[in-house]
Model the fold of this input.
Amino acid sequence: MADGEGGDVVSEYLTQNPHLVPWIESLRGHCETNKQWHARREFILRNLDVFPNIQPGTQSPCLDRLLSLSMVWTNHVFMGCQYPQPVMEKVREMAEGICVHEAPVHKTRDELMGKIKRPHPSGGDPGSLVKKNKVGLNDVDGKGEGKCVALLKSGPPPDAPAQCQSFFNRLYKAVAWKLVSAGGFGPNLDHFEILRSCAESLKVSLNCVFVPLKDIPDLPAGRTQKEGQVCELRCQTVYMGTGYGRDDGAARAMASKEALKTFQGRKVTVKIARRRFHGRDVEDLVLTDEQPKSPVFPPALSYPFQPDSQDANLSM
Amino acid sequence: MGVPAFFRWLSRKYPSIIVNCIEEKAKECNGVRIPVDTSRPNPNEVEFDNLYLDMNGIIHPCTHPEDKPAPKNEDEMMVAIFEYIDRLFNIVRPRRVLYMAIDGVAPRAKMNQQRSRRFRASKEGVELAEEKQRMREEVFQRGGYLPPEEIKERFDSNCITPGTEFMDNLAKCLRFYVADRLSNDPGWSNITVFLSDASVPGEGEHKIMDFIRRQRAQPNHDPNTHHCLCGADADLIMLGLATHEPNFTIIREEFKPNKPRPCALCGQMGHEIKDCQGLAREKQGEHDEFADTVPMSEQEFIFIRLCVLREYLERELTMASLPFPFDFERSVDDWVFMCFFVGNDFLPHLPSLEIREGAIDRLVGIYKDVVHKTGGYLTESGFVNLERVELIMQAVGVAEDNIFKKRKEDEENFKRRMKEKKKRLKAEQRPAFLPTGQFAPQALGGYGRPQSIQNARHTAYEMRMHGRDQQNKDAAQSLKATLRNGSKASSDSLDGRGVKRKAEDSDSEPEPEDNVRLWEEGWKQRYYKNKFDVDLTDDSFRKKVVKSYVEGLCWVLRYYYQGCASWKWYFPFHYAPFASDFKDIKGMFTDFETGTKPFKPLEQLMAVFPAASGNFLPPTWRALMSDPDSPIIDFYPEDFAIDLNGKKYAWQGVALLPFVDERRLRATLNEVYPDLTPEEVRRNSLGSDVVFVGKAHPLCDFIHELYRAESHQPVEIPAELCHGIQGTLNLDEEPILPDKPVESPIPTLRDIANNCAVGIKFKDPQYEDGHVFKAVILQGAKIPNKVLKPGDWERSNKPWRPQLGFNPNRQQVHLDQSALRTLGHHVKPQHGGGQYSNVPPPRGPHMSGQYSNAPPSSSYHQGNYRPPHRDHQPPYHREPAIDSGSRPLQQYGAHGWERSMQSQGAAYQQNMQRAPGGPRGYHQQQDNRRQPQGYNAGRNFPMPPPMKRYNWS
Done:
């Protein structure tokens, strides 16, 4: 059932060491299914040599430690439990090579709450490393940034605004309706959530980049001392807004609010504009709202283009 | 059992079990509060002998209340607890015994639930704190104002678990409290007080049950003791029925759903934390004089009369033509047993049985069917006859398939109805198209008559063009207006035009996916695959689950009728099997392991706390909860899966927490036992119940003498000294003694200089192993008078007078002549105000004085509970408005004050009906006048007495 190759190895091992069979079977929990037990048995047998003090047949703190870790692993795989990171890393190493077929998929409490409310601002999810085929909301927390930057490392081509425009027209509509159903634009909204859900309804994700305020060059004097985070929000490489807050979550909320302000106009337009980035002037794709006065953009915190390259490869 | 639905179901089906409490409030005179003298007769017109308090139902609301600001520190919490007990004491006024039981270490079977609650509570606490912090910053960023954060540590409700310092402290405070009241309160002077604190193993309510069980099994017990048990859990009703004591009443807070709660951030009412704007606080009263008062009414209490419930059950369960003599007491036990299928603290409920879907009625139906075949009852004194249970289960199993299909159908119907309702509500706000000009809708009965239509074609053209012009307006412009000004503008700007329906219903929330789909073919296979991760072919595993469940049913019933059979047993799965899986269960259970011991308090803390609550444990113990090398690290996941299991919210779902391996836990803790300080060793030890009496009590001298003699032998209580209560006394190491001052553990309360109380350790009467407590009515017990209307009442010609309170012959109140004059005088002048005057009649002192003695009988049903059986509801309820005559009392039943006066009016009318020949008031007079209207049509109420019997006294 659950034991493919691994099961064969285990049964082979047990036929070679028949004296171990009664002992290992005595470790089985009363309510364990065959599938769980076979996986855990393999985990225990594979790691017996890591705990040389274990004497099959006698109780010892050492054996209990191994049993505990085996339970941590099966609890994680079959029940969806998450443990502190050091524990998770340890069992992941120990479980290397054991394959479990059709492990059940569970939603942890945090994920469930995150879905209903909002992703946690701190974002640091230690368990995400071991999640199987699960893409959480964590991607928007800026960790996904690296990936996206790598994908789109080319400068903004001249036709990029035109290409992006139709997407942002759709986004504009989505945002407008979302705001209507939320009772109009106002200070009490969860701006990020609105923006995120609209973007996701169009099958794209938002990109947040966080930089501590004190790390930003070119700040007016007197502001450099301040603690806090700055967040830059992009979608499809197009810059949408920047915000400041005490922590990532607050910064992101402000950035989203700024971005939503752009959506208050009659329409939104994607343009190429000059911005400061790391002390240089660069061309950047920005979203504007057709105001007669040309807006002044804050310095860019990220730059998803090669400054020189003219080859664009924007995938819409 | 934590099944709120059960109580709701019960009180709807059997409304007469509920009696509202009458509470005498303390009066204030010149700023001096005069305490109520509780030695006076009980205003509820009933005298209780024993009051039992399940203290955890008091501690939780007093330490972290949901409807008012939390107490600032531990001292305030203790005082709140004292006040709460005082209040209950004042309402119930026990004359013999006050028994206070705090939850001690619980049986292993309860631990799954405790773990689940505590792991969740810990995470919820952190989330609330985070949200508060986030909102706080947001409010500040917007320039809002918030009161400064109080410097206090977050109260972790997890500390309400035996073994923590908090619980230890609580026990000390309660000793002080008891000594104080025994010394100073006249109502307490003859009371025997038992305190069973958290150091005594067992859940609070079950310690109480054990006390009652062991008392009634000894010959000196008074079989007519009137018990009153305080607590909100629905299983108290089961426990009360299980005692077979004829006089048993439960008192609990009246449940009012959707009570407003103050915002956790700014402390103001009217919004939730996520909508907090940080606005300046509104002044309460003209000069802010009500600043600290809670704006809603104080929580009120209700009695649940189990003797009335027994009457109802007798009607429902009585079976004629049985092959054996019918024994009502045994059928009550079977009823209690069947309620366990639907939910209890120790087992997950069967998937096909939901209280809301009438599961208990279904079970009772099946039961009455099956009992004919089985030749006997399902249970006897807490022991289960599995063969007969199997028949019940199989009968449920047959219906299972249809139950699931019906459930799905009902859900779909409900959803559809809600959707339609929403649509309707939306439509009511603004029609999609309104004809204008001469086609414009006219109010009925408006000015003039309808005009004839002229040149309809032109009007139609105009309307069409108007609509087109509107539509041609730039969509973005109106949209812009909408966005700029919020939704209010949208209704203006979009007026008069059809609005395009949104492509998708934006307010339909995403449904949690359901992989089991119980309503579809193959449900059983999917259920086992999804919930247990096994194939349906794995018979041996399924048997294991069923066997555990069968053991569980036996354990729970035994727990209720005989006490804890095994401290070790627990149900080792997260889900229940199907009823149809209960096959060949007869041999699945023989008996429980004997001689099992409860956990020690600190061990239990290790078993139920998440690592986040580790601060309640000694450092080396705490470390075992987070150290990767700990041999029990698997007990403490940081985050865990929640299976919504068809429910909507996370808190309703099943928390998939790993079970604790008792052997490994004990082995690991053995290593850290030496690290305990003497204080912690004391907290970790098992304690004893303590009994207190005041100086006036006959037992006082006896106990005092024991201390003087320093006899360290256990001594039996002489039965004649304490209403036949038996037990063993042992000297306390730190006793409370008469004339020895008691130091106050709370800085704000004074020490007791003139202590009159004495305390001594108490042990329940002991019985030999294998003793079976008989579930029968005791000899000499008098069954209380019937309350419900006899089924054959219609045939006799007397009017039926429903009993509202405890006293069937309560002195009636009535309006005398002068009262009627006053009433008439005050009401008359408002006559000109139109036929449905909303002005409430003035409540002069005379009138309110007359009325106030009656209990608010029907108020319980006003808001949330619609009584399905009306056969004893006062007819006043939902009465059509009295027609407009020249009667001065015509506002009765018209809108305005009807609601507020309803309860009083109902009682008033009751009284009138129940005073034959006595002075009569308005009501009858009016009834007579209204007779032609069919006042009582379709109801069971007899006509009021004819006119001639009525006379002005």
